[in-house]
Amino acid sequence: MAKIVTEKKIKVEVPEGKKKERIDVFLANSVENATRSRIQKLIKAECVTVNGKIIKPNYIVFPSDVIELTIPTLPRPEETEAENIPLKIVYEDDHLLVVDKSAGMVAHPSFGNYSGTLVNALLHHTNKLSESGQPGRPGIVHRIDKDTSGLLIVAKDEWTHAKLAKQFYDHTIDREYWAVCWGIFKNSRGEVVGNIARSTKDRKIFTVSTLEGKHAHTFYEVIEEFEFSSLIKLKLKTGRTHQIRVHMSHIKHPIFGDPVYGGRVIVYGSSLPKMKARVDNLLTIMQRQALHAKTLGFIHPHTSQKIFLESDLPEDFQSLLKKLRD
Prior knowledge:
The chain contains 7 helices and 17 strands.
């Protein structure tokens, strides 16, 4: 079946006092989920104008410039195909459901990845999903990374979606993540505060920045210590892309197994005998970041009752802990 692509318009005004910067860099930092390469393709396709005029990829933005983007969007929800993919549903009623997502599953379709996602599975499971979110993301109120496992809430109607989204916006959702991080923490509990922005070296990843990006705030508490790593629980005051992974890497405690933010190299204890062999064995067990969305609490929009759910650690996470305790 051919994928039907629609368009959406985005307008961005360059703020006063903005330093000179290439337009692709500026837009990659200003437009949600945009990458520099994607912006460059849009510019070459003459889908980007500045003050009503088509520009070249090396255009330098100036304060008060009005930039307009015409972006091909994902298929509308009704055009995304349902797929019979097993789901672990831990709660469901007429208005919403909560999925215990397995590691490796993408939340929603994206360019070049239209199948095998949570949305494809949800469309097979139910014909009731809200459409008030972004195109191609029916029911999706929030996301967790592809290789992060755990609890994720899905709305079945627009009113429920809006009420849940407001709880996320107001930071009244209770969420706790568990992670295995490299190293022994100096303090048993603490917090990390730092803006998260796209890396200037690699636009696909994020970094902590003092000048760019969005405010981010993470709390952590140590649960258990091992020879060269720690099991911790984390709570988010904000919800930025890759927030936990970026913040933990920033304070030199990257999440064990994280292939992007330094979790697959020996961070501590490289001088210990047989350390490499032991770490290689552990990384074979945990072939992703050791990060799990363990608890989820929210007020049900229709009943006003508090719903609290907890997810067991997945098999690979449990196996990692068992080996660390040996």
